[in-house]
Each structure stands twice: as structure tokens, then as C-alpha cells.
Design a protein that fits this description.
The protein has 567 residues and is mainly beta. The chain contains 9 helices and 32 strands. Strands 3, 4, 5, 8, 11, 14, 15, 16, 17 and 18 form a 10-stranded antiparallel sheet that branches. Strands 1-32-23-27-26 form a 5-stranded antiparallel sheet, with helices on both faces. A 5-stranded antiparallel sheet has the order 2-20-28-24-25. The longest helix is centred in the first third of the chain and has 19 residues.
Length: 567
Amino acid sequence: MQNKSIYKLLILVSIVAFFTACDKDFNEIGSDVIGDDHFGLIKDDSQTVLAYNTAIGQVETSNLPVNSLGYYNNPFFGKTKASVVSQVILDTVNQTIGTNPIVTKVELSLPYFSRLISKDATTGDSTYELDSIQGFSVVNDKKVFNKFKLSVYENNYTLRDLDASLNFLDVQRYYSGETAIFDAYKNPVRLNDDADLAQNEEFMYSSAEIKTYKTVDGVQVVDTRSAPGMRLKLRNNFFQDKLFGAAATGKFFNNSIFKDYFRGLYFKADASNSSLNQGTMALLNFKQAKIIVTYTVEVTSSTGVTRKEKKFGISLGGNSVNLLENDYSSGYTSGMASNSNATTGAYNLFPKGGEGSMAIIKLFGDLDVKGWNNTTGAFVTGPNQIPDELEDLRHPADKKKLLVNDANITFYIDKDKMTGALEPNRIYLYDLNNHRPILDYYVDYSVASISKNNKYVHGGIIEKTAATSSYDKRGIKYKIRLTNHMMNLISNDSTNVRLGLVVTESIGFTSNAKLKNSVPVANPFNKYPSAAVFNPLGTVLFGNNIPVTDPNYAKRLKLEIYYTKPD
């Protein structure tokens, strides 16, 4: 009877937490929904957890929902350049150009992911905070994004829809490591060649509101206001020739013809001379990018020939590919080499986004010397492909079935190795065998004020120390709830699948990207969560293989199961 009361109380506490925690600061210690007080439930943290690392290699980066752009030097993992190639499409097909067109201005605009923080009632100025941008310095307790070199080129490589090598029966896939192909086919003339170095050699993401001005009665006033975004001036003469030259005749009839004629733009990122050891990388939705070509044409009237201003709209659409170049640090490469043993497990785990790495996790170990005979209701000698530890939980010696009330797995951050490095906001644990989320993901409908923190009961959100400045907070751990997964394993005899651990940019995005080559482990696999592809960050976690005498032994990877038994 007492156990039933405890269970009801636990449910009540969970419900209350669910409805009150939506706007909670998930980065503070003690942000667990249920907390560490399990009301006297039986705790089992003795089960074996085996975890090791594997490199991913080249991953499919064609037509991602968002793309990384920039250069970032991670203090632990090393340097990454992220560039983007995208097709372009006409806003209006088969449009009439006019007589003797002359280009006067070309501007590319691309909004950043941002949140409105405040608006000044007097000036009308808005303050924004940028999201999904990594790499900054702190000056007077304010975030200042570091610079990188940005070059925009014409792309002359055809981004096909279908794969010719497969008789056009499957989509064409492009991979993260194909930079050399696009370098070889780019027009070497840089299109963003403005004298303002902030447009190219020293490009920097900015959270400032974008304003345009006009003159009224001799006074300059604000004309328009826009949320933060990229604004680049592009070469007039290139677009003059490309759009209005003789070769362009008939190329505007439809977008199929236009995409074959103008094969897109290549946004290439490099280290800036002013930020060789820093840099910044951002996630951008290039489908929102727009190029406005302003030009004039001749207009003949009774009073003579004048020129009239017109605009020509081009959007970034169609196929795209994200190119990643990595110069990994010796600490990361040596750590991966010494922590990839599938038999003993790892001291450290290195989930790294992009063309990076992940951890493979096996619950309950590999010992399998006995099995359960349902007919006799007793154990028999001999393996049955089910770990013995799991069999013991399914068939306790006292014959009293376990009622799992809570289960979680905690990953502590190796703060020494992550010193000075930006930390991913979230990690993602999934069913590696079937390349899908575990059950706890599906049954969690919790919603936060920021969508990245949705499904916070399932967890995986970083917990940080308290600090006087938000920029001084350091990560402590990630905790993931897998109660329903464990209930299925113990009570419903579900298959004990391998689990994959990766960083994630969006918990709501669970599709997978193809790997160029299968990962050469036992039971190889060739898929990888797409949300990990477009997150450039990584973290260093403590694994399972930590000696008892090691000062970090208490931070080893552990599975915690809380359960009750019937009276």
C-alpha cells in the first residue's frame, strides 16, 4: 500500500513540474524536473554501461534545413571552416527587362536567427539577441562576435537533382568533404569586393538592427527597420553581364533554364587575419536569402528619353551543399585513438558535430552465459543474446517484478578539457540500431519558451554553474531520462538496442543524413542524425572506463534505475 502511495505522489510531482517549468532556466544546477529526491524508491546504479567513440567521416550535407557558415577555432577540437554552395532561382520568371538596362546596385540580404529583446519607446530602436552563432569575445560583459574572411563566388558546378551514376533513379547526394570540387569550378572573381572590409576580409555577424535612411525636409530620418541579418554589396558589372549580357538571352523563361545558366553562389569561409585563433560560425537558412538587383532602363515619351529604375529579384533556392574543412587538434585525435575500444569502453567521450564523432553506448554489458526458460520458469545455462544483467532485472530472485518509476543516465563534462571552449546546449540519445529516437522522446510533450528546450523532461540540456556573468557559466553535466525505454526493456522484453550519443542543434529535428562510408564497427551503420551535422560544437564527457583510484571516478557514466516492488 505504501508503495502505491509513493507512486501516486511521484506522478503528482511530475505533473506539477511539467506545468510550472516551461520558462525555467535550464542551465542552472538543479534543473531536473523530478530532482534527486526519489521518495525512498529503490535505487540501482550497479548496471554496466559500456561507451566508446567512433569517427563519422564524410556526411551528406545536401539540402539541409539550415547551414553552417564561418570559421571557428575550438580550443579542444581544433579548426573548422564551413562554406555553402546554393543554387539561385528567379523571383519572377519570363519577366520583361526593358531597354538598355544598366545595373546600379546589387545587394544580398540574409536574416539571422534572432530574438527581439526590447524596444526603446523614445527612439524606436530595437535590441536583438542572435541565436545559433558560435565564437565570440566578451568586452565589458558584452558579447562581440569574432571576424572571419567571407568570399562570395559564382559557382559553375552543376548541382544535379538525380544521380547519373545510379541511372537517375535516386537523388544526387553531396558530402561534407567535397570542397575541392567546388573550388575547382568557382569563378575566381570575388563578388563581395567592396572596399569596406566588413563585407569580406573582416566579416562579422552583428546583432544590430538594420536601418535605412531617407531625407525629409533636409533632415535624415529612419526609413525602414529590419531584424539583424547579412547585407552584402555584390559586383555590379558581374550581374550586368550575367543578367543583361548577350548570353542571357532566353535564360529567364523558367527556373530550370535559369539554374542551368546561372549555377549558383559559393559562400566560402576562411580565417581572418584579425581572428586567426578565434573566428565565428553561424547557422543560417539560405532559403531566406535574397538578391535585389537595382537597374535603370530607357523610357521614351513625348518629352524625350529618360531612365526609370526597376528591380530584379533572385532568391537562393533549389539544391545546396554545406562544405566542412577540419584541422583537428592533437588532443582530439589522440583522445579518439585511445578511447574507441568497444570491449573496455572509454575514459572520455567526444561527441562532435559536423563531420565529427559520436559515442556508442551499450547498456547492461556483454556478459551472456545464461538464459531464461519460460516453460520451466528458471534460468538455464547458455547464451541467449540477452545480457545477463538485463535477465536478472526481468526475473528477480524473489519473483517480484520490478515497477520502474524513473531511470536516467548522466554524462558529466570533463571541465579541464573543455576550458575556454563553447559548449553545446544539448546532446541527443537515440536508438542507433533503428536510427530513431527512444520511446521517452515520443511520450514527452513538454514545451519550453525556447523551442530548443522542448522535451525538457526527456532532457539532454546542459546544466551549468551559477556565475555573475552569463558568459562565465560552465557546464557540469547532461542528464537524459529514459524511464519508458527502461520499462520496455524490463517489463516488455524489448530488444536491448545500441544507443547513439551526439550533439544536437534542434531536438525537434530527428531525420538522418547518409554517411559517405559506413562506420566500421560491429554492426556497421551508414546514417547519422542531421541535427548533429549542422551543429559545429563538441563536448568532452566522462565515459565508463575510469579507475576506482582516479579522482574523476565519481563522474563516470552511470545508469540509475529507481523502482518499487509489489508488497
